[in-house]
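Folding problem:
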Amino acid sequence: MPKLSRRLLLGSAIALPFMSSAALAADKILASVPGLSFPFFVHMMNAFKAEIQKQGYEAIESDGQVSSPKQTADVEAAIAQGVKGIVISPNEVDAMAPALKEAVEAGIPVVTVDRRVPSVEGILAHVGADNVKGGEAQGKLILKLFPEGATIVNLQGQSGASPAIDRNKGLHNVLDPVKDKYKIVFEQTAGFARDKGLAVTEAALSALSEPPKVIVAANDDMALGAVEAVKGRGLSGIAIIGFDALPEALAQVRDGGMTATIEQFPGKQSSLGVQTLVNFLKNGTKPAEKILLLTPEAVTKDNLNIAERLGEVK
């Protein structure tokens, strides 16, 4: 068993309750997500657990509670208890690096999913979506929908989270070269949260002299908050574009409340992440490519059938 770090000794009171004494068994895999308060990560966790069980292992579930110290404590407790491997979507790129480095140094293979931590050498693999291309898909859709130009409110994601950084980069890759016609008139983080998406959209609508043509959000929770804000003001005709293809967002796209969302196939990401880890655990097989990125696609009313979670739409 690896030597306990001082941080583990301090944080174990937080982390240990999510593991039973049976977690000391040799066939456990830690599955960790930033926060189960987000529907996206609930779906990811369910996919993790299903694939881990399918592969003959038992999952230890870690809810990071949108707290890097909490997720760090969970990872360190798992290291101390001797898990076979870790699949994780890190809460923050930089803040989670020390804990993942500790796991690697303890000889525990780590696969990151959705959110990458490139500063840590020795991570077995990363499986995710190409979030830059996802942001570009949002931008290209804006150009297609508004060939004469548009004013845009941009709801950015959680500061420090790699998907938020990359999606914003992709959006700007498309819009910045044509900013004379496509103007971002309000841009602010809303932390990937619906209530903040609502509040920031309300602030934007209050600050602007006229409603924007487009509200683009780095995830569906923020976009759904924007839908509430727009409805609350009795406005119509604003294109609202989200990201994640949550069932509720897909229903809004179907019914006209949202224009589009971006499908990044999180269930497939999660399954591939577990498969990559288990191939190494069972066979010592390292992936041919350390970074596997799926290409996100824009989902509109015309192609709802490509959505991974369409069957969950009510």
In short: The first helix runs from residue 6 to 15. The chain has ten helices and twelve strands.
